[in-house]
Design goal:
single chain, about 575 residues, six-stranded mixed beta sheet, 34 strands, globular
């Protein structure tokens, strides 16, 4: 079928050249079909049905180049509403395909279909996609690999092979029931039963050894490990026995090469890591080495799954297989190790990969990040003091609206939210002091649907302030629609006079997810040049559910390419 004798692909190419599709003229168009369906899966001697994409766990990887456009036909053959998010992709002018439920769309209902469009404009490296509804991303997730645009290459020696490694979790119980139990009781979420690498628990857990993921390598070759933390609840230390790791990218942005024995990666983050296979130096050298991840948890009062998960690095050799060499990895509560690692990350900031850190700031925000409680009738809930566990930003615990915020904004339905998210917390005190010294009423929060409205091209600085309410912990904060520069961080209370003097404005890491240190602070900067509705939330899934979230609305600019794209006709109904 054509248009006046022009083939469909030629017609699309003509539209692209005219700018009518908003797609870079150098990019290719890719098409994928994602079928959401129930699939039987066995782990830890236990079989259950899980939600998957195309029957795969983890789901299928997407491969494209910078400048390409991807269309994904999402067909829901599952038993519940679901949405998909393309984590770390800016989606310029197109919040309609971003995916968080009740923020930019309502769920895709069983039997329904939604076509999502993904534009790769500045991203280059590893990102990922995942469900953004309830706890569905426990099994509905996969890698997005973005190669350099045609005619360019990596800013490091091209690796001999690339390997995707997705860190995750496994519950023997149905994850929807795990969430429903926590919401019903008001208590904490039950920890997972296993941590996983590419969906497998590894050698140290029951019924798992035969399916442990293996990475085959050859002596003298270099491998690019694309590591994704898809876990709902756990930050991870990660190491490969007897092998150095050289980080060359985080969150699809290149970094200065940084060599280390281990990494610490929060939920939502991705890291590109070079590994040199250099240990098979003689015929008697060990040929098998454990790839290991286990949680980092700075708050011992928070329940967590402390299991190690393993994969195996195997050299190609005729030697008889032996037990893999064990890896050395920091202790679960080693905050010093986690801090030392993250302090070493720097943007590449080269001529080919420049950075543009905002030097002057239009909008200053100081946001406290807290786990709270919400009063429960008759003290009958399972949280502290008989109350319900909640979470907040500036003591506002986000309440999902009846329809998604984007729909309400687009059609001017102002009864769904209020545009008064505060730039400051309502009460200032020593946020990191012993919780016993904090008045009980300051531990409480309440639900509300507040957003922050930004003029187009506003430069924003956010200082996230960690708090010690209920013991405090590291919080991985993720911003949709943007990446940001991490210009500063520290422990204790942020000092607005002294701490900005130590900001890194030369080569700060450029990320979309950042861990706010326990009882500390982190400062980020970004330019709000992407019109639309954009979610910001903690990537611990239980904290998102409890309300540690807010929404930015960036208004249209004056130019045609500064305005939000029209609403697609197939948006899911509420």
């Amino acid at each position: 079928m054509g248009f006046g004798g022009i083939s469909l692909m030629k017609f699309i190419s003509l539209l692209m050249l005219c700018g009518l599709l908003g797609t870079p003229v150098w990019g290719k168009i890719h098409r994928h079909t994602f079928i959401i369906e129930e699939t039987p899966c066995t782990r830890l001697c236990h079989t259950k049905n899980i939600l998957t994409v195309n029957g795969q766990f983890p789901g299928p990887a997407i491969y494209a180049r910078k400048g390409d456009t991807i269309f994904v036909d999402v067909i829901n053959k599952g038993n519940k509403n679901i949405t998909l998010h393309w984590h770390g992709i800016n989606q310029p002018r197109n919040p309609w395909s971003d995916g968080p439920e009740y923020i930019t769309q309502c769920g895709i209902q069983p039997g329904a279909k939604f076509i999502q469009r993904i534009e790769l404009t500045e991203e280059e490296g590893t990102l990922w996609w995942h469900a953004h509804s309830d706890f569905d991303r426990a099994t509905v997730h996969g890698a997005i690999v973005i190669f350099p645009e045609q005619g360019t290459t990596y800013p490091f020696t091209k690796p001999d092979k690339e390997v995707n490694l997705i860190l995750g979790e496994w519950w023997n119980d149905d994850v929807t029931q795990v969430l429903e139990k926590a919401l019903r009781t008001g208590g904490d979420v039950d920890p997972s039963d296993a941590n996983t690498i590419n969906g497998q628990p590894g050698n140290f857990l029951p019924c798992s050894q035969n399916d442990t993921f293996k990475v085959q390598v050859e002596q003298g070759k270099t491998y690019l490990l694309r590591i994704i933390n898809a876990a709902l609840s756990n930050e991870f230390f990660f190491a490969v026995a007897n092998h150095k790791l050289t980080i060359v990218g985080t969150d699809a942005s290149y970094t200065k090469p940084y060599t280390t024995d281990f990494i610490m990666i929060t939920p939502g983050q991705t890291m590109d890591i070079l590994l040199e296979a250099n240990q098979l130096q003689t015929s008697s050298s060990p040929s098998r080495y454990y790839i290991v991840a286990h949680p980092y948890n700075g708050n011992p009062t928070v329940p967590y799954d402390g299991n190690f998960t393993t994969a195996i690095l195997e050299y190609q050799t005729n030697n008889f297989p032996i037990m893999p060499i064990l890896a050395s990895i920091p202790f679960v509560s080693d905050t010093d190790a986690a801090t030392t690692f993250t302090d070493g990350l720097r943007s590449l900031a080269s001529w080919d990969h420049p950075i543009d850190v905002p030097k002057t700031i239009d909008e200053q925000m100081y946001i406290t990040v807290a786990v709270n409680t919400i009063p429960c009738p008759n003290k009958s809930c399972g949280g502290p003091g008989g109350n319900r566990l909640g979470a907040s930003l500036n003591n506002v615990s986000f309440q999902d609206p009846q329809i998604d915020v984007l729909e309400a904004y687009y059609f001017s339905l102002r009864d769904q939210y209020t545009p008064d998210f505060p730039n400051r917390p309502p009460i200032f005190f020593n946020f990191t002091e012993d919780m016993d010294l904090i008045p009980p009423e300051w531990l409480l929060t309440k639900k509300d649907t507040k957003v922050k409205v930004l003029e187009y091209n506003t430069t924003v600085e956010i200082v996230f302030q960690g708090t010690n309410l209920f013991g405090g912990e590291n919080h991985p904060m993720h911003l949709h629609g943007h990446s940001f520069y991490v210009v500063g961080k520290g422990f204790g209370i942020f000092d607005k006079e002294k701490d900005p003097l130590s900001y890194n404005l030369v080569d700060p890491p450029y990320e979309n997810t950042i861990g706010v240190p326990k009882n500390g602070w982190v400062a980020i900067r970004f330019r709000a040049a992407n019109p639309g509705v954009w979610f910001m939330h903690c990537h611990f899934e239980r904290h998102t559910v409890w309300g540690m979230d807010m929404v930015f609305i960036t208004k249209n600019g004056n130019g045609e390419d500064e305005k939000m794209l029209p609403r697609p006709s197939d948006m899911p109904s509420c």
